[in-house]
Design a protein that fits this description.
The structure holds three protein chains of three kinds. Helices cover about 60% and strands about 0% of the residues of chain A. Chain A is mainly α. The relative contact order of chain A is 0.12. Chain B is an alpha+beta fold. Classes of the chains: A mainly alpha, B alpha+beta, C alpha/beta. The interface of A and B includes residues 286 and 404 of A.
């Protein structure tokens, strides 16, 4: 609660206001305006009423907000939006935050308790924001003998690798004007190999952060995490090869397109199971959380991280969780395909689409192939809803396992990873080859 | 520098090189392969006791238990206090199971002084003792969950335990360390509607713990971690003198409530659970089966209890025994708890020796841990139903 | 019980405990033909037949019998008791009698294997002379260890060693168990050791 200072002098008060105003003007002029100018180089300036939208014209948008719509549209069509907001990092961070909250609540209900309750009016929904603010306000303690450059950079690398992973997953189908490019940050022809490459980064980052902490418990935790991740990477990769054999492509979007009538989990259930188990181990989730929260080592390889570094590591962890679940959905559960459940639009929208004055074309169309260019179409919204539902279902199962199982022992873990899962993954490949050569299924264009 | 009191005659390696050592110190060779670990008193994976473990890679070569971190000198303190004044501190070794520690004490003093306990008090004692056993076993199961890394196995028993602690609070006024038993009966009677409330809560409790079968005892990872680890054969269990659930998990049917019934146990139908496997899984399952059995006993006792009557035979002030000694034993949550009371016509006991189940099971710990994997250590160690505070007294 | 005499103690203690015993069937002096004490009497008769004068039967109560032996004979007595069917020790306690300058070690032996002996606890007691003024670290009070006969007494005898200063010959590991490593005072359960303030 704020108290008006006992010694209130009007002069000091006015001085404070003028100081703040001066600082704001200086910062805006020296930093913000050049930043906007640089940014606008990368965003295509649209044409409004026959006139190019310059920054000066943009400032008039304060008074005429309807003129801002083309700017928003241009931002949405730009690459920066894709990377930072929609299928990229912003969306992933939002999903990760939702996952953290749902995990805490769901685990609590499983264990007959309540979970976060007091923050926010309904059932503690602002708990995450409170935790985030708390973490930001904590001091970041660097151990004296730690390897400082790597120690600072390790959480950022972790989040970066997780974000790189997210960048490869197609979230929704795109419309005509995007040249049928789906809503994905990076549409690569070798998308799946890029996924494997990014997954291969995670053990390195774990060991780097453990080693640079220069302390006993992170060291033990890091070595265990290395063992675990490396031994489960092989079945992870092998289990996905079955789908690659049957679709003939490594492009993730084409894999999703190949599942328009059926998901691959129907034909390759063994591969799906192997991938699921190996995914749990890569994520260091219970029952495979030996590196982190074992009762013998304090917190594993993230012992020495404090404050926002710990927050970044947790964020990266949950973004990774979302990305793995999304990968599972993409490859085995038919991605964004699904029957049309978004309710039918009224007839005039079907004909013309939603028109917002000032935009070059309709905002939303129903038919993907239309002569006006639209930002969204109904297929995209439909695909997005299905994608989110399926990812939520997979994440639900991952969280459910946390409440039910204890932790495995290290030799059991290695036994599972090197013997059982690799064996099952090979069985899966044989099933895929069998399906292919017996002519039941084939990649598009093969026969 | 303080001198160790290990006498010279018991030095293990009296070789020439050790002649240069100050007296009381031993020479130990440090091997390159064998690492000495202190699973110490401050460790999330041990109780309040220390295990000095020598590990060769992943296998435990030697285990030397080092209890005594919570040693408070109960037996010495008992020699300075009267029989009644001894009660509050004697129940502290196991705070949840306090009725069962005071049980042999009260039985022994009643035998020494020569008084008879009223019927209603006997039934209430049995009910309180069984409730205490359930409370202790739930706590033990919860900690077992922590050792295995299963958070639900911690939350469920800890939560269900509250039902019974509620009942005990109605009976005695305290959640733990009840100080409810006195020589001559119990301290006070129960409230008026206690029988109905108790029956309802015990029925609900039984329904709750029956669900543990599915999630805990059929859990494949728990079975994989505890089956066939730390196997104690029947002959070894007898030879090592183990007691309680450790003994019954190895196939020896010995339950003091059946073999040497005290109070009204001979009128109740007690079934003792025995499993033959002798591994950690059996040792972790028997206390749960015992809890189900306790619910039955409480229900029978509530039925048969006389509805009214005194609950305490008053002793004269400063009760004294004769020149006599008694040894009474009781089946507590951990095993047989015996008290050896030597009296010499004074109001304080001349010697009070408490023989607890945890201390008697301690000898099984180095025996079982030799040759085990290090990852199995928490599962085996805690399955021996070892309560460090009680073993140290 | 604090005296160490022979046959009078047996009769005295049976007289003394006629009062505290409330169980109606247990009046050993008056009705020696009752069932329960006869069974205990049979156990003690067997011991007395084998060892004769070397042992004395301190008391025969229902389910509890006590045999006092001298320290030279305690190992043989323990072996005989083991053959009778008792297979483990419930507890081992040491009692300090400074006026008669002795420390008594009391073994409570029970049986898991033999169902007829399940209720019985046979108390085996030996005495060792103690010095007048205990000094920390000398092992003048010695008793033979029963660990080779009853394996279960191993930790109990260690505790008795550290609490009362009784050195058990033949015990492989006379080390302290519960007391801290730097305990430099006399063994605490001796009557000479006074709690502070009392």
């Amino acid at each position: 609660m704020s108290v008006i200072a006992p010694k209130f002098r009007l002069g000091y008060f006015l001085k404070g206001i003028i100081d703040n105003a001066l600082w704001i003007i200086v910062l805006v002029t020296l930093i913000v305006v050049p930043l906007i100018q640089v940014l606008l180089i990368y965003i295509n300036l649209p044409v409004v009423d026959g006139e190019l939208l310059t920054p000066f014209l943009a400032f008039t948008l304060i008074f005429h907000p309807e003129l801002a719509v083309p700017l928003v549209e241009a931002i949405i069509r730009s690459d920066l939006f894709r990377i930072a907001a929609f299928p990229g990092f912003g969306f992933a961070a939002l999903m990760a935050a939702a996952v953290i909250f749902v995990e805490r609540k769901m685990l609590a209900k499983l264990q007959l308790r309540v979970g976060p309750f007091y923050c926010g009016k309904i059932e503690g929904i602002f708990q995450l924001i409170a935790d985030g603010i708390k973490l930001v306000s904590k001091e970041i303690i660097i151990p004296d003998k730690a390897d400082k450059p790597i120690f600072w950079v390790a959480p950022l690398l972790f989040v970066g690798a997780a974000a790189a992973f997210v960048a490869l997953i197609p979230v929704a189908p795109g419309g005509e004007e995007f040249d049928n490019m789906p809503w994905v940050v990076a549409d690569l022809d070798v998308g799946l190999i890029a996924v494997f490459a990014v997954i291969g980064f995670f053990p390195i980052i774990t060991v780097l952060s453990a080693w640079s902490s220069n302390s006993k418990y992170p060291f033990i935790g890091g070595i265990r995490a290395l063992h675990q991740m490396v031994s489960f990477e092989i079945p992870l990769i092998l289990s996905l090869l079955g789908v690659v054999i049957l679709t003939g492509t490594l492009n993730l979007n084409e894999i999703v397109q190949s599942q328009t009538s059926f998901p691959w989990i129907l034909f390759l259930p063994v591969g799906a199971i192997v991938f699921f188990v190996a995914m749990l181990a890569e994520l260091e989730r219970i029952p495979f959380d030996l590196p982190e929260a074992e009762s013998e080592i304090v917190a594993g390889w993230l012992t020495e991280f404090s404050g926002m570094m710990y927050g970044l590591v947790q964020l990266g962890s949950y973004v990774k969780l979302y990305a793995f679940a999304a990968l599972f959905v993409t490859i085995f559960l038919a991605g964004y395909n699904g029957p049309s459940i978004y309710p039918d639009f009224p007839q005039d929208i079907i004909d013309d689409g939603i028109i917002i004055p000032g935009m070059t074309g309709p905002l939303l169309t129903v038919k993907p192939f239309t002569d006006g260019t639209a930002v969204l179409d109904q297929e995209m919204i439909n695909g997005l809803i299905w994608f989110v539902l399926k990812t939520a279902a997979v994440i639900f199962f991952i969280l459910l396992i946390r409440g039910v199982f204890p932790r495995v022992r290290i030799d059991m873990l290695l036994h599972i990873g090197w013997y059982k899962l690799i064996g099952l993954a090979f069985v899966n490949i044989f099933i895929a080859l069998g399906l292919l050569y017996s002519g039941i299924l084939a990649p598009v264009g093969a026969f | 520098m303080s001198k160790q009191l290990t006498p010279k005659s018991s030095e293990k390696q009296s070789t020439e090189s050790s002649k240069n050592l100050p007296p009381g110190l031993q020479l130990e060779n440090v091997d390159d392969r064998i690492m000495t670990l202190n699973v110490g008193p401050q460790h999330p994976g041990s109780g309040h006791m220390r295990l000095i473990i020598k590990v060769d890679g992943d296998y435990i070569v030697n285990c030397d238990p080092d209890p005594g971190y919570v040693h408070r000198g109960e037996e010495k303190m008992a020699e300075y206090r009267n029989y009644i004044t001894n009660i509050p501190h004697l129940e502290r070794p196991v705070i949840h199971d306090s009725c069962n520690i005071l049980y042999p004490y009260c039985l022994g003093i009643e035998e020494l002084v020569g008084i008879e306990v009223p019927e209603r008090a006997k039934y209430l004692r049995v009910i309180a003792a069984e409730l205490n056993r359930c409370v202790y076993t739930q706590y033990w199961l919860a900690i077992y969950g922590i050792f295995l890394g299963h958070s639900t196995m911690f939350m469920w028993p800890a939560g269900d335990r509250e039902l019974l602690i509620d009942l005990l609070e109605k009976m005695s006024g305290a959640r733990v360390t009840h100080a409810y038993f006195v020589p001559g009966g119990i301290r006070n009677d129960v409230p008026a509607n206690f029988e109905d409330v108790c029956l309802r809560q015990v029925n609900y409790f039984e329904k709750r713990i029956k669900e543990y079968a599915g999630i805990f005892y059929d859990n494949p990872i728990l079975i994989a971690r505890t089956k066939d680890t730390g196997v104690l054969s029947r002959e070894d269990a007898i030879r090592l003198g183990t007691t309680g659930s450790v003994l019954r998990a190895s196939g020896v049917d010995f339950d003091i409530r059946k073999k040497e019934p005290y109070d009204v146990y001979d009128e109740l139908d007690v079934h003792s659970n025995v499993m033959k496997a002798g591994d950690s899984y059996a040792r972790s399952k028997i206390p749960w089966l015992d809890m189900l059995e306790s619910c039955n006993i409480i229900r029978q006792a509530l039925e048969k209890m006389p509805k009214s009557g005194g609950v305490r035979t008053k002793l004269k002030p400063n009760p004294k025994g004769g020149d006599d000694e008694v040894y009474r034993r009781v089946e507590s949550g951990r095993g047989s708890l015996g008290m050896h009371i030597v009296s010499d016509k004074k109001p304080q006991p001349y010697r009070l020796k408490i023989s607890v189940g945890s201390f008697r099971n301690l000898i099984a710990m180095p025996y079982l841990l030799k040759g085990e994997k290090l990852g199995n250590m928490p599962a085996v160690y805690w399955s021996l139903n070892y309560w460090p505070v009680e073993a140290d007294r | 019980m604090s005296t160490s005499d022979n046959k009078e103690t047996a009769q005295e203690s049976t007289q003394v405990e006629a009062k505290p015993e409330d169980k109606p069937e247990d009046k050993p002096k008056d009705k020696p033909k009752e069932n329960l004490p006869v069974f205990e009497k049979s156990l003690t008769d067997k011991i007395q037949k084998k060892f004769g004068d070397k042992t004395e039967i301190a008391y025969v109560k229902s389910n509890r019998t006590r045999v006092n032996v001298k320290k030279e004979d305690v190992v043989k007595a323990a072996q005989f008791i083991r053959e009778m069917g008792f297979d483990h020790a419930e507890s081992v306690s040491g009692v300090d009698y400074p006026e008669s300058k002795e420390i008594e070690v009391v073994y409570h032996l029970g049986s898991y294997g033999d169902p007829t002996l399940a209720k019985q606890i046979l108390v085996l007691a030996t005495r060792a002379t103690r010095e007048d003024d205990p000094k920390p670290g000398n092992d003048s009070t010695k008793l033979p260890s029963l660990r080779d006969v009853f394996y279960s007494v191993e930790f109990h005898e260690r505790e008795c060693f550290e609490m009362l200063g009784v050195f058990f010959e033949g015990h492989p590991d006379n080390r302290r168990l519960l007391l801290p490593e730097d305990w430099a005072d006399i063994p605490p359960l001796r009557k000479d050791f006074g709690n502070k303030g009392r």
